[in-house]
Amino acid sequence: MELFRQRIEDLKAEITKHNKAYYEQDNPTISDFEYDELFRELKKLEELYPEYATADSPTQKVGSDISDKFKEIKHKYRLYSLDNSNNIDDLKHWYERIKKEYPNETLKVVSELKIDGLACALSYINGNLVTGATRGDGVVGEVITENIKQIKNIPQKLKNPINIEVRGEVYMPVSSFEKLNEIQRENGGKEFANPRNAAAGSLRQDNPEITGKRDLKFFAYAAVFPDDNSPKTHYEILQLLKNEGFTVNENAKLHSEIKTVEDYCKYWEFERQKLDYATDGIVVKINDVDKQIELGYTARAPKWATAFKFPPEEIETELLDIELSLGKTGALTPVAILSPVQLAGTTVKRASLHNFEEIERLGINIGDRVIIKKAAEIIPKVIRKANPDEQNGYYLPPKFCPCCGTELVKSEGEVVLYCPNSDGCPAQIKGKIEFWCSKDGMDIDGLGESIVDDAVEKGIISDVADIYNLTEQDLMKLDLIKEKSAQNLLSSINETKKRPLKRFLTSLSIKLVGKETAELISNELLTLEKVKNATKEELTAIDGVGDKVADSVFEFFHNEKNLKLIEKLASFGVIPKNAESDKVSDKFKGMTFVITGTLSKPRTDFENIIKSMGGKVSSSVSKKTSYVLCGENPGSKFDKATSLGVIILSEQNFMELVENA
After folding, report:
1. DSSP structure class, residue 481
2. Which of 7, 222, 486, 523 could be disulfide-bonded to 167 (CB atoms 3.0-4.6 Å)?
3. How many CB atoms lie within 10 A of CB 205?
4. Burial bucket for residue 562 (CB in 10 Å: 0-12, 13-18, 19+)
5. Interatomic CA distance for residues 241 and 223, integer angstroms
6. Strand, helix or coil at 330?
7. Which one of 1.10.287.610, 3.30.70.1670, 1.10.8.60, 3.30.70.1130 gives the CATH number of domain 2-60?
8. Which of 6-15, 420-429, 455-464, 568-577 has the lowest mean pLDDT?
9. Alpha helix positions (H), 368-496
10. Regarding the domain delimited by 314-397, which CATH topology (the fold level of the hierarchy) does it fall under?
11. Which residues, 6+ apart, have CB-to-CB distance to 433 below 8 Å?
């Protein structure tokens, strides 16, 4: 008996640790399948030995994502988790148990794809969005209203003046996730493990502007009606939400029998690979709302719903080689070259190894048998050695650049190795030119990687400025170019000479400067000349630009070769358009504002007013803060401002300050 008590305690501690990593740190350390196995074991032991079950057990509560970054809110209507059906038999047993309660009735159910994102509750009064909150532990969540308002497909005003609380999932599309990680990788930043982490990290930002710049979306999947005017079925609720302007997953389906639900689950187990969002299962719900109420809830989940989880797909293969990929900033990334295997419906030949510290942690080397899986069912990833006891050492990082032979370096506090030979390394030269031409760069239509590679190999271009000196004769020397396409390409190139400053700065491939940072710098300094002459102090004064970014930008524009490149571009007519100043006065110059709480308009409206008058908006309160603008339900920033003696403004006070200025 003591053995079982100890196992229960160990499981509780381990699951609590994993809950913290998943919900609070957005950094899961085990797969969903492994977590479910631990949870299922704990639940079974507690059923067998109820004397050891306690109220604080993870089986009795919802995992919590509450942090101290946001103000807490007690949910008016509790949010629950879901119990899992891990195979078709479990799903049938769940259905049959409920069918016994209604033996003479047709028991309809609705199946929906289970979106792998962050659960949220949105409260509307008279059709107006008033509060957005995370699920938290189901009883208490975090107020993230301003961040929720940044998600474009969440309506802030419904078509009808109804009172309703909408539940749904905030997620990041797969294509956006891959693009975000590419930017993180190129800029030496930390990559997100999967789209769910990327969505959670993007939604729970101190600065709503950052949330707005990340491509987040929302699927509505349930609602609570305070006025007791709920539709009679769950399927009708989904239709109502759609009519009010919400995005409802189009793959939701109404079933009259469990057999068609089985078919639905089997179909989506493989078909989901074609979707642009991550889904790890199917949620099945009793359709009749009155029956939902009658069936009720356990301590953590509704009895009238279950989540069918897709089986994880892991497979063993051989690590044939480790390829060293060099990016435009000189970052060296190891990539696993694998003996081809079928995984989750696709043939996998390559997998991410992230960095050399990850290789050391895994203890893997060329020739090892390894286990791979798709992280969040999307990106192939090596997760462990097939035989951990096999001693083959681990693959050591190179000392010299595999492309140009320059000694590699690692910046303090970073895990990425870099080749510092930015001007002479062929891989970096190609990478910079390819990025300059890409959609995230200057967006030169028709000038893709193959043409760039051919042009560099043949010595027709050696830097981005050479693109603007190309002639039709030059282009005709390239394998993929014909006369008509040469003329079109020259026209496309010419059209990009006057791109906005923010796009120009992004395209220069400055280390640590992606689209978001380039836009921050552009909006503040307005002209290329001011960016070139900015001091480190002026750069760090820009909200969102830290010391490392400031150092990188300063060093770039104080490098003689970079300045000559910009001059060369200008000689060919490539001169970026100045950013337009939104400033109407300098009355707030030197002042720093912090905004907290719910205001009558989106937070960005107030930020724009402050910036237009020369002020700065910060995400945190300090002794240097001039004013804290407080709306309703202010968070911990209000308390900190009070303790520091910072002046607190109501919305009315703020508008009076603006009018007087």
Report:
1. -
2. 222
3. 19
4. middle
5. 8
6. coil
7. 1.10.287.610
8. 6-15
9. 426-437, 449-457, 472-476, 483-495
10. OB fold (Dihydrolipoamide Acetyltransferase, E2P) (2.40.50)
11. 452, 456, 461, 463, 464, 467
Cβ(217)–Cβ(151) under 8 Å?
yes
Q: Identify the three-state secondary structure at position 218.
A: strand
Measured N-to-C along each axis, helices 195-203 and 174-186 cross at an angle, to the nearest 10 degrees, of 80
Instruction: List pLDDT tens digits, range 153-200.
Output: 999 999 999 999 999 999 999 888 888 877 776 665 667 767 888 888
pLDDT of residue 381: 84
| Distance from C-alpha of 661 to C-alpha of 655, rounded to nearest angstrom | 10
Q: How many helices (H) and strands (E) does the chain have?
A: 24, 22
* Distance from C-alpha of 296 to C-alpha of 291, rounded to nearest angstrom: 8
Burial label, 103 (beta-carbon count in 10 A; 0-12, 13-18, 19+): exposed
Average pLDDT over residues 576-588: 74
Q: What is the largest CA-CA distance in the chain?
A: 86
Which amino acid, 472?
Answer: E
Please pick, among 114, 309, 432, 616, the residue that the annotation labels catalytic: 114
Q: Hey, what amino acid is at 618? A: S
Q: Which CATH number fits domain 592-660: 3.40.50.10190, 3.20.20.70, 3.60.40.10, 3.40.250.10?
A: 3.40.50.10190
Dihedral-angle region of residue 344 (phi above 0 means left; psi in -120 to 50 means alpha; beta otherwise): left
Domain ranges of the chain: 2-60, 72-309, 314-397, 426-571, 592-660
Q: Tell me the pLDDT tens digit for each residue of 125-162.
A: 999 999 999 998 888 899 999 999 999 899 999 999 99
In this predicted structure, what is the pLDDT of residue 24?
A: 53
Q: Distance (Å, rounded) from C-alpha 554 to C-alpha 326?
A: 24
CB 173 within 8 A of CB 180: no
CATH number of 72-309: 3.30.470.30
The residue count of the chain comes to: 661
Whether 272 contacts 377, CB under 8 Å: yes
Decide if 114 is catalytic.
Answer: yes
Average pLDDT of the chain to the nearest whole number? 86
Comparing CA positions, the residue from 143, 142, 135, 23 lying closest to residue 79 is 135
For residues 179 and 379, what is the distance between their CA atoms, to the nearest angstrom? 13
Tens-digit pLDDT profile for residues 399-412 = 999 999 999 998 77
Assigned fold of 426-571: DNA polymerase; domain 1 (1.10.150)
Whether the CB-CB separation of 324 and 400 falls below 8 Å is answered with no
- What integer is the mean pLDDT of 579-593? 75
Q: Is beta strand 109-115 parallel, antiparallel or unpaired with respect to 279-286?
A: antiparallel
